[in-house]
Specification:
Layout lengths: L2 H7 L15 H13 L16 E2 H11 L4 H12 L11 E2 L13 H4 L1 H4 L20 H11 L1 H7 L1 H19 L9 E2 L2 H4 L8 H4 L26 H16 L11 E2 L1 H20 L5 H18 E2 L4 E2 L2 E2 L4 E2 L18 H12 L32 E2 H13 L3 H17 L5 E2 L6 E2 L5 H11 L26
Antiparallel strand pairs: 1-2, 3-4, 4-7, 5-6, 7-8, 9-10, 10-11
Helix pairs in contact: 2-18, 3-4, 3-7, 3-18, 4-7, 4-9, 7-8, 7-9, 7-13, 9-13, 13-14, 16-17, 17-18
Organism: Streptomyces cellostaticus
Protein name: Mannosylglycerate hydrolase MGH1-like glycoside hydrolase domain-containing protein
Family: Belongs to the glycosyl hydrolase 63 family.
Length: 476
C-alpha cells in the first residue's frame, strides 16, 4: 500500500474530498505526511519538537490545508480549539496537551494558571490554556472548511456549532480590545500578534522592565539556534508582560504594551466577511457584518495607513504615535476587498520595491524591511520569509488583479516548502531553511496552493481574496 493510500485508509470514505493533483503528487503526499505526523487525534501541533501543543492561528491555517485531505479532520481541528474558548469569548493562543511534560515548552500551564487566574474571565476548568490570544483567522478558516464539503458540514451541523463561538470571539475583540477608541483591536503582548519578535515591538517593549533571567527557562533554545531566536532581554520582557497580565486576572486594558496592528485587524475584517457568509448560510442576515467589516476597513485606513511609507504601520497606543518600522504586517491588508484602489496599488508597489524586493531580490516576502537597521535574514520575524504571510499576500495579489506576481509567489512558496522539508521560515535571499522543519502550516498552505489553478483570478466579492466562487485548481 503506498503512502497516499495509507493516509486515506484510516478515514471514512466520506472524508476524502480530493485526489492529489496530477501536477505534483509527490509534494502533495509529503505535505500530507507532515500533517499526519503532527496530528494528535483531535488537533495538529505546529511542530513535534518546538511547539508540542495546539496553537490558535496555526490551527486555523492548518485547517485551511487539511480541508483538501479530510474535511472532517479540518472541522475537528477548529472544533477542538473552540472547545477551549473562555467565557468572555477569547480564544486562547495555546491549548495545552496534558500528556506533554511541563518542561517541554515555556511558558507552560503552571505559568499561565488559566483555571485559577482566568476564573473571572471564564477560563475553562477542564483544559489548561494560555491567557492571551492570536490573530482571528478562525471564521475565515471555518468558511473555507465548510466550502470543501458542504454536505458533510451540514450533516454534522458544523457551521451551526461554531458560529456562536466565532461571534463571541469577535465580540470580545471588538468590545474589550478597542483600547484606542478608534474602532480597531489592540494587542497587549507581541505573542498575540503572532509575529513575536518583530522590530515593530522594540520601542513599545523598551518601556517594559524584563523579568529576572533566573525566573524562567527558555525551552525554545533546546530546539532552535540562539542566533535565530529572540534575545534573552526581549524574552524577559515577554515574560514580564505575560506575568503582569496573569496577575491582573487577565483583565484587559491596563498593561504597558498596547498596539494597533494592521495584520491582526485585517484578518479580523476578512473573518467578519466570512462570518457574514456563515450567517447567511445558516439563514440569518449577514449585511450587518459586511457593513461592520467595511467600517473596520475605513478605520484601518484612517488610523494605520501611512502614505509616505506606502504601507500600513503599527500604532503604539501608550506612546500615541505610528511606529516607523516597515513589517510584513503592514502589507497583509492587501487581502481586503474594500481597500481604496490607490492604497492597494501603493501596497503592491511597496511589496515589489526595494524594502521587500518581491520578484527582484526575494522570492518570498521577508517579514521585515530589507533596508531596515534591525533586518536579520535568520532571526525570528526580523527578516526571514514565512509561509503563512506569503500565502496571505499571494491571495491579496490575486484579488487585486496581480495574477503574474501571484503566480510567481505561489510557485516560490511551493518550491521552497518542498526544498526545505516544510521549514518554519526561510532566509528571504537564499531560501535556506530556518527554525523547525516538518512545520504544520507550511505543509497545510502548500497543500492549499497545490489545489489552486495558476493564473486564475479571484472574484471581487465581499470575501475578496478568499472568495471560493472561482474553484480553480486541479481538484479531484
Amino acid at each position: 500500500m503506498d503512502r497516499t493510500a495509507q493516509l486515506t485508509a484510516r478515514l471514512p470514505e466520506r472524508e476524502i474530498a480530493y485526489d492529489p493533483p496530477a501536477s505534483a503528487p509527490s509534494l502533495h503526499v509529503r505535505a500530507a505526511q507532515v500533517l499526519d505526523a503532527n496530528w494528535t487525534g483531535s488537533s495538529t501541533v505546529p511542530s513535534r519538537s518546538l511547539y508540542p501543543h495546539q496553537w490558535s492561528w496555526d490551527s486555523a491555517f492548518i485547517a485551511i490545508g487539511l480541508r483538501h485531505l479530510s474535511p472532517l479532520r479540518a472541522q475537528t481541528e477548529l472544533e477542538t480549539l473552540l472547545a477551549a474558548q473562555w467565557g468572555d469569548g477569547r480564544i486562547p493562543h495555546i491549548v495545552f496537551n496534558p500528556s506533554v511534560p511541563l518542561d517541554a515548552y515555556f511558558p507552560s500551564p503552571d505559568f499561565w494558571r488559566s483555571s485559577t487566574a482566568g476564573r473571572a474571565a471564564g477560563a475553562p476548568r477542564t483544559v489548561q490554556t494560555s491567557g492571551i490570544v492570536q490573530p482571528p483567522v478562525h471564521a475565515l478558516a471555518a468558511w473555507l472548511v465548510h466550502c470543501a464539503d458542504p454536505g458533510l458540514s451540514q450533516a454534522r451541523g458544523f457551521l451551526a456549532g461554531v458560529y456562536p463561538r466565532l461571534a463571541a470571539w469577535h465580540r470580545y475583540l471588538l468590545h474589550r480590545r478597542d483600547l484606542g477608541g478608534g474602532g480597531l483591536v489592540s494587542v497587549m503582548h507581541p505573542w498575540e500578534q503572532g509575529m513575536d519578535n518583530s522590530p515593530c515591538w522594540d520601542a513599545p517593549l523598551s518601556r517594559v522592565t524584563p523579568a529576572p533571567a533566573r525566573s524562567f527557562r527558555r525551552a525554545d533554545l533546546d530546539h532552535g539556534a540562539p542566533e535565530d531566536r529572540p534575545t534573552d532581554l526581549d524574552y524577559g520582557r515577554y515574560v514580564r508582560l505575560a506575568t503582569d497580565y496573569r496577575d491582573r486576572s487577565y483583565a484587559d486594558g491596563d498593561g504597558e504594551f498596547a498596539v494597533e496592528d494592521p495584520a491582526f485587524n485585517a484578518l479580523l475584517i476578512a473573518s467578519e466577511h466570512a462570518l457574514a457568509r456563515i450567517a447567511a448560510e445558516l439563514g440569518a442576515a449577514g449585511t450587518a457584518r459586511h457593513a461592520r467589516a467595511e467600517r473596520l476597513t475605513a478605520a484601518l485606513v484612517k488610523r494605520l495607513w501611512d502614505a509616505a511609507s506606502g504601507m500600513f504601520l503599527c500604532r503604539d497606543l501608550r506612546g500615541g504615535e505610528l511606529i516607523p518600522e516597515r513589517s510584513v504586517s503592514g502589507l497583509v491588508p492587501l487581502v481586503l476587498p474594500g481597500l481604496p484602489r490607490p492604497v492597494a496599488a501603493a501596497l503592491v508597489r511597496t511589496l515589489c520595491g526595494p524594502h521587500f524586493g518581491l520578484g527582484e531580490s526575494t522570492a518570498m516576502v521577508p517579514s521585515y524591511d530589507l533596508l531596515g537597521e534591525a533586518f536579520d535574514p535568520h532571526r525570528y520575524w526580523r527578516g526571514p520569509a514565512w509561509f503563512n504571510t506569503s500565502w496571505l499576500l499571494e491571495r491579496g495579489l490575486r484579488a487585486h488583479g496581480e495574477r503574474q506576481r501571484a503566480d510567481a509567489l505561489r510557485e516560490a512558496v511551493l518550491s521552497l516548502a518542498d526544498a526545505t522539508g516544510f521549514a518554519e521560515y526561510v532566509d528571504p535571499y537564499t531560501g535556506e531553511a530556518c527554525g523547525a522543519t516538518g512545520f504544520g502550516w507550511t505543509a497545510a498552505l502548500a497543500l492549499d496552493l497545490l489545489h489552486e489553478r495558476p493564473g486564475h483570478t479571484v472574484s471581487p466579492t465581499a470575501t475578496g481574496a478568499f472568495d471560493t466562487s472561482d474553484k480553480g485548481g486541479d481538484r479531484g
